[in-house]
Design a protein that fits this description.
The protein is mainly α. The chain has helices at residues 4-15, 27-47, 53-90, 102-137, 171-179; strands spanning 138-143, 150-151, 157-158, 166-170, 183-186.
Length: 189
């Protein structure tokens, strides 16, 4: 059975190393047995009429153990999430995963999957918005006839343009010129 000192040593190693430390695959079962045993001791000793130092020491050891276990699991979860983030960014998914416990491996796999899905969604949205903005703002047109200078919607003078000349125009102006048969759209793709 695992001891308090062993639990504390595992925490210390995990805390002061960047990489996920190797721990026995049966670690959680051993912790559960340890906690169960301490609780049984407390129940047994509290049933006796004598208030003992052993009871106080056992209770303190159980409380400390629970605190150390909570901190250890939090540190490991943070390392698993950092590992998943690195794996999603670089595409490497097997780096340092041999030290994961089964529940940590599941957290890692789910996190990598969600991060990759999120990256794909963001990329699609960015590409879609970029194309949409490009389509909404300007159009390439070729003039079918000479067009004298005119004022654009912002008050800036545009032109004059000669037949066959190509221009990148704001969409609303390009559409007016195309409707008047003075220009035609050029596909920029």
């Amino acid at each position: 059975m695992i001891t308090y000192q062993e639990i504390y040593d595992i925490l210390r190693k995990e805390k002061y190393n960047d990489a996920l430390q190797e721990i026995p695959k049966s670690f959680l079962k051993e912790l559960a047995s340890y906690i169960t045993e301490k609780k049984k001791l407390l129940t047994r000793e509290s049933d006796s009429t004598l208030f003992s130092d052993t009871l106080r020491m056992t209770r303190k050891q159980l409380d400390n153990s629970l605190s150390v276990i909570k901190e250890l699991l939090a540190i490991r979860e943070k390392k698993v999430l950092n590992l998943a983030f690195a794996a999603a960014q670089t595409g490497v998914s097997k780096r340092d995963t041999e030290n994961l416990l089964s529940h940590e491996k599941e957290l890692f796999d789910l996190s990598v999957k969600k991060l990759e899905e999120n990256q794909k969604l963001v990329k699609q949205q960015l590409e879609g918005e970029f194309k949409q903005e490009k389509d909404l703002k300007n159009l390439f047109i070729r003039f079918k006839q000479d067009v004298p200078a005119f004022l654009g919607s912002n008050g800036q003078e545009l032109g004059p343009f000669q037949e066959g000349e190509i221009a990148n125009m704001p969409k609303e102006i390009a559409e007016i010129l195309m409707n008047d048969e003075k220009a035609e759209k050029i596909d920029s793709d």
